């Protein structure tokens, strides 16, 4: 898992950003909640669904300080956005805003990360079909 490459502080920042992302459409789906809970559990992080505004996005992003960490965080946020079945306009806008704040303004890079995530979901779905 690429999240393993992040420091513990970067993982917590990722989780806090993911909570913000999950709530962007004012409806945290069961799949999104499961993702958040698994991330928190797998890495011994604090999941706070109520107080997600305590840290500003800028504060959280400042913790993500290498290009590798930035790409991993964006990949995970896009993956979370796909959890409810679609990457909606509000989610796309928030991911784009976070990418800009991270200094990753290259549209081709963003498309490549999204394609990477989408292919991962397709791969899992295809495997489920073969096993089912």
Automatic annotation (TrEMBL):
Q: Which InterPro entries match?
A: TerB-like (IPR029024)
Name the source's superkingdom.
Bacteria
Stored SUPFAM superfamilies: TerB-like
Q: What is this protein called?
A: Uncharacterized protein
Q: Which organism is it from?
A: Thiomicrospira cyclica (strain DSM 14477 / JCM 11371 / ALM1) (Thioalkalimicrobium cyclicum)
